[in-house]
Amino acid sequence: MLEKREFEKSDFMWRLSTAVTVVSGIFSVIVFVLLAVNYLQIRAVDPIDNEMITQMRIEYSELPEQDDALAKRIEELDLLTRKAFFASQNHLRVGAGLLLVGVCVFLIAFKNMIRWKPELPELAEVPTADREFLAYAQSRRLITWGGVTLLAGGLLVSLLTESLVAAPAAAGLNASSAQVTLDGGVDGIEPPIAVAKEYPTWDAMQLNWPSFRGPGSSGQAHFTNAPLDWDVEEGRGIRWKAEVPLPGTSSPVVWGTRLFLSGADEQTREVYCFDTETGELRWKRTLEPFEDTPAESPFVNAETSYAAPTMVVHGDQVFAIFSNKDIVSYDFDGNLVWGRNLGISDNHYGHSSSLLAYGGLIYVQLDQVEEGKLLALDAPTGETAWVKKRDWISWASPILAHTPYGVQVILCSEEDVDAYDAASGKLLWSQDCLGGEVAPSPAYSNGIVFAANEYAMASAIQLTGSADAIQTEILWEYDNLLPEISSPVGDGERFYFATSYGELVCLDAASGEEKWVEEVSDAGFYSSPVLVGDRLYILDKEGTMYIVRAGAEYEEIATRAIGEETFATPAFMDGRIYVRTTAHLYCIE
C-alpha cells in the first residue's frame, strides 16, 4: 500500500514564490492593459489610410497654386503616421510575447507558492470542514483560470489588432490562391503560343536594361556615356516625349529598340511597347481577367499605385505583374504567351516588388502578411518551377548577384536578408539585420551585401566560406541617415544611397565610415541612384536629376530639371536616358 505523501514546507521558498506570483501577476495585467489600449488606438485611427492626410491632400489638389509649406506638412505627417504604425506593430509582437512569459511565470510561481506554504489551511469544526476545503480548492482554480483567461484575452486583442491592419488589403477579395497555368486558354483570351527556349547570357543582359535598376537590378549601367546636358523646356537634348496612357510607378525596361512599361488604375491593367528611336507606341495590351483574378482590385497606397512593380525582359518575352497579382507574358509583337493570377494580395500598401529573370526563370517576390513566398516561374509556360516560403512582409525587390560562391537571388524582408540559389531555390544564407517597413532593395559589391532601411539601420554583410557552406558576418553597421524607398548602389569601394528627406550619403564599403553627406533636394528621393561609370544619376520626386561624382569626396557635376513628378528609376542605354514621370516618357540623348 502506497504511503500517503506529506506536504513539504519551506518559509523561504514560500515567500519567494509569493513575491514572484505577485510581481508576475501585476506585470501581466499591465501588459494586457497596454495591448488593449493599443487595440483601441488602432481601431480609432486607421494607420494606413489616415482621414486627416487624405483631406489635406484633397485640399492641396484644389489649391490654385502650389503650396510648398502644406506639401511639406502632408509629407511629414505621412511619415510620422507610418512610423507610428510600425511602432504599434512592434509593440504588438513584443507585448504578446511578454504576456505569454508573464502568465507562464505567474502560474508556475503560484503553484509553487501553494506547495511551499509553511502552514496547512486551518479547517473549522468537522461539520464544515469539507465546505471550507472545497472553497480553498476552488479559489486556487479561480486564480489559475484567471491567469489563463488573461493570456487568452491578450492574444485575442493581438489578433484583433493585426486583423484591423490587414483588413484593407483583403477587403472584398475571396478568390483562392491559384497555382494553375493556362493550358488551353480562357474565354476571351487567345491560347498560348510557342516560344523559343534560348535565353540571354549575362553579357547580353549587360548590353540592355532588362529589369528594375538594370541587369540583375544592380543599379549599374554598362554604358558610361549618359548625357550631362539637356533642357526640357527648350527641347535641347530631348529626342522624344511620349504620353503614357495609364499611371504607374513602375520603371521602364529596354531591350534593343523596344521599351516596355506597365500602367494601371483600379479597373484596367495595361502593358505598353514603345519604339526607342521614335517614341511611337508600337502596341498596347489590356489584360482580361484570368481564371482566378479577383473580382475587385486590392487596396493600394496612393504612392504605390496599381502598377508599381517594374517589368522584366527575358529572351523574346516580356513579363509584367500588377497589384492584384495578375502576371502576364507577351512576345515582342504583343502576342499573349501566358497569364495567371498568383492569389489574393495581402499587403496593406500594395504589391510593389519588381520582377527578375535569369536562366529561363522568372523570380516573383511575394512578401506579404500571410503566405509570403518566393516563386520561380518557368518563362515559356508560367508554371511554377519552385517555391520557397517567406516569413516576413516587405516591399523590396530582389537582386541577382554574381558572387564567388555562385549566382544568388538576394531579398530583403522586414527582419532579414536572405539569399537563394538562382537555379534550385535552395536557401544559401540568412542574416537578421533589418526592421521596419522595408522597401529598398539590397546592393551587392565586391563580396559585400549592403542592406538599409529607415527606422532600422544599414548593415554590410561580408560573405565568406565556400560554395557548399557560405558564411555571413556583419562587417559594420550605420544608423545616421537611412533610405526609406530608394535603393542603394555600390561601386566596389563605397556604397551610395538617397533618403526621402533629400540627402545623398556615401559610406566606405570596408569600414562603414561616412565619407560624405549632402542635403541636395527639398523634395526628397523615391527613385534609386544609378552608377554610370564614375558618375551617379539620381532623380528627386519633383523631377530634378542630380549628377554627382562617385568618389570619396562630394562633387556635383550637374543638375538638370525635367519638371514633372517622378517616382520611377530611369533606364540607361548607349548615350541615352529613358525617364518615366507621372504622365510622360522621355528619351534624353
Short summary:
The protein has 589 residues and is an alpha+beta fold. The chain contains five helices and 32 strands.
Describe this structure in words.
- The strands form eight sheets. The protein has a four-stranded antiparallel beta sheet with strand order 1-32-31-30, with no helix packed on it. A four-stranded antiparallel beta sheet has the order 2-3-4-5, with no helix packed on it. A four-stranded antiparallel beta sheet has the order 6-7-8-9, with no helix packed on it.
- The N and C termini lie far apart (100 Å).
- The longest helix is centred in the N-terminal third of the chain and has 48 residues, at 68-115.
- It is an alpha+beta fold and 589 residues long.
- The relative contact order is 0.10.
- A hairpin with a 5-residue loop joins strand 4 and strand 5 (281-286).
- Helix 1 (11-44) runs antiparallel to helix 3 (68-115).
- The chain contains five helices and 32 strands.
- Residues 164-196 have low confidence and may be disordered.
